[in-house]
Every structure is written in C-alpha cells, then in structure tokens.
Design a protein that fits this description.
The structure is a homodimer of 506-residue chains. Chain A is mainly α and 506 residues long. The first copy, chain A, folds into two domains: 150 residues, Methane Monooxygenase Hydroxylase, Chain G, domain 1 (Up-down Bundle), CATH 1.20.58; 354 residues, Neurolysin, domain 3. In chain A, 63% of the residues lie in helices and 3% in strands. Chain A contains 20 helices and three strands. Chain A starts with a helix and ends in a 9-residue tail after the last helix. The mean pLDDT of chain A is 96.
C-alpha cells in the first residue's frame, strides 16, 4: 500500500479506536453505570469527542486526504481506498465548516436539554422545557448557516444522519406515503381484533428463554454479543466481535421484550456484518440511519410479525408459558401482533400508523428550521396535526410533543430516517424474496440464516462505503420507493383483517 | 486562578478524562466484554494510551509545567496547585526519558506475554513461556537504562508503583520481616486448627446476601458502586461516583467470596474517598500501590478476620446458611479464618506466610534486573527459595514460578507493594485505634463507619498529593516500619493458637 494512503489510514484508525471508547462509555452509561457516575462520564465522553474532533479536522488530516486522493487518482473508483478517501474527505469538509465553539455549544445544550426534558416529560410541563428547546432550535439554525452547498437549510441536518439525501426527495416520498396510508388506516382501524394472546401474565424468566431462542435463530452468538436490559432499547457495535443490544420487559405484554429484542438484534446483525477489511476505518460503520433502521424493522416487522415466523413463535410461546397460551395458534398470534390502530405514542405504534408519526415530525422540523414555526408554537401545532393525521385528541404534552427525547438532545433531522427504514426494508425484502426463492418456507421452518446471509452479502458488509441510496441501487436496482412498502402493508393488512387488498387502495 | 496553572489544569484534566475511558475499557474487558471483542479492545486501549502519552510528554506540557511552577513560586508548598505541578512534573520527566518505541514495545510484549502465560500456566510449560519472560526482563533492563537519577536499576521500576521508594529501604524492611516471620510460622504451622466452619456447602444466593450485607456496612452504596463477578477480583475507580469492584465465588469455601469482596471494597473505599477537588487531575488517584494495598488488607484481614468483627459475621453466617453453620460461634470462625500454614499459592496464603511469598519475588526480581539470575534459571531459583522460606517442595511450575500473571505482563517492581501494604495497614491501624478509642467495640457492633471516616480523613482524601511515605508520616508520624505488623500478627496468632506472644518472638 502506498505511503500517503497508509498514513491517512493510520490517522483515521486511531480516531475510530477513540470512537470505540466513546461507544463503550455510552453503552455503559445506559446499562451498567452507577447513577452518581453521570457527571464524570459526561465529561469523559466530551473529552474523547473533543480529542477525536480536534484530530480529525486538523490541517494535517486535510493534507493526508489530499495526498491520498492524488495517489489514488487512477485507482479503482469503487475500491476501498478510493471510497475511504472520498467519504472521509466529505466528512472532513463538513466538520471543518462548523466552528469548534458552535459544535461544543450544540453538544452542551443537547446534554442539558436532555436532562431538563426528563423532568419536563414526567411532570407534563412544556413551559419549563420550552427555553431549552428554543435554544436547540436556534443552534440548529445557526449550524445550517455554516454550509453553502445544500439546497435548503434542512438538508444540512438531514445529511448528518442520511448522507446526501435531500429533504425535497423525502417530502415527495412522505406525501405519497401519507396519501396511501390514511385511507388504509381509516378502513381497518374501526375493526376489533383479539389481542388477548399477547396480553396476560408472562413470567420474565420464560420471556428470557423465548428471547434467547429467537435471538439464537437470528444469529446472536454469546461469544460476540451481549443482551442487557434498559428502559430505552438500543443496539451498539462497540468493535469487531462485540455487538451489544438491549431490550425491555413487561410481565403483562409479551411483544415488548420480544419485538424490541428482534428490532435491536436486526441493528446488531448490521453492525456485526460489516466487512473486517473496513473495520477501524470511517467506512466501518453503517452507511446511514435509514439503512440501519431498515434492518431493525425488517427483522422486527417483516420477519417477527410475519405470518410464516408466527408459525415458529406460536408453539414456542405455547410451550414456554402454558396456561392461557397453551393453545395459542399461529393465526391468532399473527393477528394480535398486527393490529392497526392510531395511537399517541410513536414507539408503541403499529407499522402503518408509525409512518404518520414520522411524517408529522418531519414536517414540524422543517417548519422549525425554516422559521415558519417557533418552539413555543409546538404543542398547538403538534396537537392539530395529530388530530388531522391520526384522528386523535392529545390529552397532554407528555403524550404529545414531549414524548420523544430527540429534540431535547438537539437531534433535528433524525426522525425521517425511521420511516425511510420502513420503505427500504420493503424494497430489500422484495429482492431477497426473489433471490432466495423460498423465503416464506425458510422463515416458517425457523431458518433465518439464508435471509441474514443475503442481507450480509447485499447490505451489511459494505459498511459506509456507499450512501444509502447508492447501496440500495446496488442491492435492488432502484432508489428509495414507497410502493413496495405500501404493497407489503396492504397484503398484510388484508390478511389480518380479511378484507380485499383492493379495498385498501388510496 | 492564574492563567498558566489553569491552562495546565485544563490540559491534564483532558488526559485524566481519557484515563477514565481506559479504566472503563479495562473493567469491561474483565467483566462484560464478549470474548471475540478482545482484539479490537486491545487496539482501542492502546490508542487511548498512545494519545494520552503523546499529549502528556509533549513539549507543550513541559512549557505549561514550567510556567505554572514559576507562577506558584511563592504559593503554599502544600497547596493543591503546587503539589499538582510537582507531581506532574516528576511524572513528565520520567515519561519523557523513555523513547516512545521502547514504551510501546514494553506494552506490546506485555500483552503478548500475558496471552502466552495463560496457556503456559494451564499446561504447566515453563519452556514455552521462557522466551517471552526473557523478552520482558530484557525490556525492563533496557527501561532502567533510560534513567540516571536512581541509586540502582531496580529503583526505577519500583518507583513506577511506589513513587520515591528505594529498594535499599525495602530490603531492610523485608529482611527484618523475614527474620521475624520465619520462627513465628515454624512455631504454629504444625498445630491443627478446625477449618470446617468455612468449608462445606454455601449456596451462592446466600453468599450474595452475606456479601451485600457486609459491603453495606463498609459503605458500598449502589448509587455509586458496582459489584460484579470475575475470576481474578479487582477494584477500579472509574470516575467520581463510580467505583467498581469484583469478587469470585466458591460453593464449598466461604472465605473466597467474602474476603475477596472485603479486600476489593477496601480498595474501592480509597478510590471513593479521594477529595472532589483533586478529581480529574493527576492527584486524583491513589498515591502508591503500597498505600492502596494497605487499605484492602486492612479491611480484609484486620477488620474482616479480626476477632471483633467475627462476632458480627458468625451470627450472620449462621442465620443465612443454617444447617451445619447454624451453631457457628464467633471464636470458631475467628480461628478458622486465621490458620497459619505455608502453602504454594500466593493469593491463597494466610497473612503471615503471604509476606514470605512477596519477599521471595522481590529478591528474584532484583536478581533478574541486576543480571544475577536469568529467566531460564527461574524455576530452579524459585523452587530452592520456596523450600528455604516456606519449607515446601514445588511439585510443578504451574504451582510455582508460573502462578502469577505479573512478570508475563512485564510488571516487575510491583510485587513488593503487596507486603508494604501489610506493614502500612498495621501502622494505620495502631493510630486509628489510638484516635478512635473504642475501635474494637465499634467493630464488634458492626459499626464500620468510624474507621472508614478515619481512613478517609487521614489517607483517602489526599489522593496522590503526597508520596506514600510522606502520607504515612502525616498520618502516623513515621515512615514504613515492620514492628506494628509483626506485633499485630503475634497478638493475633497468640489468640488463635493459644500460645504466649513471647513464644512467637524471633
């Protein structure tokens, strides 16, 4: 390997090793750390990030990037080295445009905002939270002014989570999605489906067995994975051979632990599947949050809530829990975990209404960044749109505008990636079905490895080598589209509710 | 605060925050990390240490140290700022004398050596290990040549663990110690004491309760502490409000979990007790390993194996385990946990013979560094001295020269601090008894907080502000001495074995 490329790689590898430390500190904070350690931990994470940022944006990195690009002028444009240099150069340029003082102020305000939000949500007090939210919005507005190369302000934010995606494209996708989902939801929401199979009494020790068995089928390997408990489930790829996921448990509602675990395991499989050759480089992570979410939603919803795999789950649940569950049939389970009904809380929403929660947040974020809405207007704006999109009255801000942590932490531009994940998952699923031939039969037999290997081959191993859109084009021959998801949803809802697909058309 | 001091503090604070990250990675590696994550973790720890070392030894740090020293010329020599600058300057000077290539080779060889040692020990194969040990010894010999300001080669190594301590002083202490212990051991070792009270069947869930109750008496606070399981127990102060200790469990031998936990909790109390004002500075850690070990041994042996606290433990054990233990009396427990008998394995040795294990290692280390013994001679040398000091034949190297991890990891100069810890503990104990008046009565009533607060006041809060010797002088008015430990041991052994103290004189 040539010398400039190697020197660049050495420098970037060290920064990725520092990221390993930051990732572990973040994981520990949410799973293991004693509460009184919080302040020291926040400082330690900030120190790592400051060192990492300082070394990354240094002039030296720029010189190495330039020299490496020069060296690679005639190299394969698709080779790891060329992609590494291009991806790193793009990030370097973006990071350098943000003054260090602004970057650290954003981090600080996000950290304070998050703490205030916890109390504000639990006491249903938007007014106490409003000034912190305003501060985050004003910093985000300042952040976007650092860039000239985006079509609109919001694009600069979106790009942090979904590189090279434009909000105009997301808007087109989401408005089509909304127009298709609203009539579908309206048609079936009034119909009642029996949810008793998944509500009842489920001893935690048996739930742990269930989750362990399902994780094992997915590919969870105790030599390279951990599963821990948290209030807010998440997945984190700490380093090669070290994937950590968490889930949460309810003794009375079985899907909480099971589907959180499948969701996070989906994320974990992505982290695990990144090619060893890309590890400890800027390409050694997921290409975008939308792609990441496509993996979690695919495993949670398309596998876990799909009719074939419900045929594996139902007898497992019957055997483990006995009693009321001992006669559980796969059809009842399938219907009970796929009820479509508008609800107030995003993280508890079903697959169909979930997307509307996201559309609403995406629209509000654009309005906030472009100054059409101020932070103080949010409760009113929120409640109006919930009524409009979901037909629900919001009884209090805790179940409304205060429900999510994101804005309190300064994460604006992040929400749309959740719904993009649903769209991408459906596109990948279509292609995997075509390639694998007998996907449903495999899932019905509990054989999850062919699907996992397909995803590894077409998605995971590439890390951040391509943008989400480019990766999707390579995998399925197309950019992000709405139709596969809507088609999938219509077929499923038709199956669950026993109505013709044609009745569910927009 | 003046500007140069503040600038120095800012720089050093960042380095301490990186140390927080390294400490967490080390803890996680031994308690939580999936096995396949080991390689990536080793790289990440190395990266943090490299960045930390690089920033510390930089010219810039030296300039800040100089400017700060200048600013503080007329400041209180005992003030935190002055001490901070002096301690940091000494470490800076020592670190800078070691070429980065040598430092990283030492780290690399230690990491490889440790891995080889694990296999060599389990297969009882010294020959396979010898070349790696030779390498570590030869690197240690090279390391000591970096310094001119030590009286002898070994002092440079000892100083890394026990700053400013000289091996001539340790030799004097140890030769006196040896001469006093050998006859004491010879007198009582042939006598049999009933050890059945602590051998038997002890369900782990009950052991966990016992340990939790004892830890709570010591000051373990779940909001700021963790207790986890490991094969090799340790304690780690991650940051303010975050102390982590581990222990190990045997279903058939109760002292293993209980006394490991008390030992590590003693270390943890030291970490917890460092003054908040010294945190996140180079003074915000223990002053030396000897002082650290004094805390663990004091709690494990002088409190935990002492007659007064055995009066608290015995009824607790009787109640928790019932059966054969239900009639356990404090006297039987006290005698069972204080049996003096020469044994092959250091970590399983009693208080009296333990010191001889250390003396033996200290002498061999000096011989190795000064070239009187080569690595290949070690099994023979080891076995000869074990026969001489402990009267035992070593049946195999796994129970002999291969038993400890230290040399495999390149840690030479570390062992003596264990025995220094015993000496210091006895000195502190004498003074605490005098100050507290009713220490035995307090311990017998399970009141451990007066002792803990005394230690906090006289030891813990000072962090690394003073050397071990200076701290001890402030606490007890004297440097390290052998007599208090030997006196303590004679009184205890006399009590356990029912022989007059005069019969135990050297």
């Amino acid at each position: 390997m040539s010398s400039a490329v190697q020197a660049l790689r050495d420098r970037l590898t060290e920064l990725e090793d520092l990221r390993h430390a930051a990732a572990l500190m973040g994981w520990d904070q949410q799973t293991m750390m004693p509460t009184r350690g919080a302040t020291a931990r926040a400082e330690a994470i900030a120190a790592i990030e400051r060192v990492r940022h300082g070394k990354f944006i240094a002039e030296e990195t720029g010189e190495l990037l330039e020299a490496a690009a020069e060296e690679l002028r005639s190299a394969d444009p698709d080779g790891d080295d060329r992609r590494l240099v291009e991806v790193a150069a793009r990030r370097w340029d973006k990071s350098r445009r943000v003054p260090t003082s602004l970057a650290s102020e954003i981090a600080r305000a996000g950290s304070i905002g998050q703490r205030v939000w916890v109390t504000a949500r639990s006491s249903n007090d938007f007014t106490a939270f409003a000034p912190y939210l305003e501060r985050n919005v004003s910093l985000a507005r300042e952040y976007v002014t650092c860039f000239e190369n985006f079509d609109c302000a919001y694009d600069a934010l979106l790009d942090d989570y979904e590189p090279e995606m434009k909000s105009s494209g997301v808007s087109r996708l989401f408005s089509k999605l909304k127009s298709q989902l609203v009539p579908l939801i309206a048609r079936v929401a009034p119909v009642t489906i029996d949810d008793s199979p998944v509500n009842g009494s489920f001893p935690l020790s048996r739930q742990r067995e269930l989750v362990a068995q399902v994780m094992a089928l997915m590919g969870f390997d105790p030599a390279g994975w951990r599963l821990d408990d948290t209030v807010h489930p998440f997945a984190s790829g700490i380093g090669e051979g070290d994937v950590r996921i968490t889930t949460r448990w309810s003794e009375s509602y079985l899907p909480m632990s099971l589907y959180s675990a499948m969701h996070e395991c989906g994320h974990g499989l992505y982290e695990e599947g990144i090619a060893p050759t890309l590890r400890r480089t800027p390409l050694g992570r997921a290409c975008s949050l939308g792609l990441h979410e496509s993996q979690s939603r695919l495993w949670e919803n398309m596998v876990g809530r799909g009719r074939p795999f419900c045929g594996v789950l139902a007898p497992l649940i019957a055997r483990l829990f006995g009693g009321a569950q001992s006669a559980l049939c796969s059809d009842s389970l399938f219907r009970a975990v796929n009820i479509v009904t508008p609800s107030l809380i995003r993280v508890e929403a079903d697959e169909a209404t979930y997307a509307l929660h996201i559309v609403l947040r995406f629209e509000l974020e654009q309005d906030l960044i472009e100054g059409r809405v101020e932070a103080s207007d949010l409760p009113h704006e929120w409640n109006t749109r919930v009524k409009q999109y979901l037909g629900l009255d919001v009884p209090n801000d805790a179940s409304g505008v205060l429900q999510d942590v994101h804005w309190s932490a300064g994460l604006i531009g992040y929400f749309p990636t959740y719904a993009l994940g649903s769209l991408i998952a459906a596109q990948l699923w279509e292609r995997a079905e075509a390639d694998l031939g007998a996907l449903d039969e495999q899932l019905a037999a509990g054989q999850l490895s062919p699907l996992r290997e397909w995803l590894r081959e077409h998605v995971h191993r590439f890390g951040a080598k391509y943008t989400g859109t480019d990766l999707l084009k390579r995998a399925v021959g197309d950019g992000i589209r709405v139709e596969p998801f809507v088609d999938y949803l219509r077929r499923k809802v038709s199956d669950v509710y026993g109505v013709a697909v044609s009745e569910l058309d927009g």
